[in-house]
Amino acid sequence: MLERDAGAAGVARRFMAEQFRGWGIADDYAARLVACELVTNAYRYGEGPIVVRVFLDERDGLPVIEVWDGGEGRPLVRPENYADMRGRGLLLVAEMAHAWGVRPLNEGGKVVWAKCAAC
Question: For the domain 8-116, what is the CATH code?
Answer without folding.
Answer: 3.30.565.10
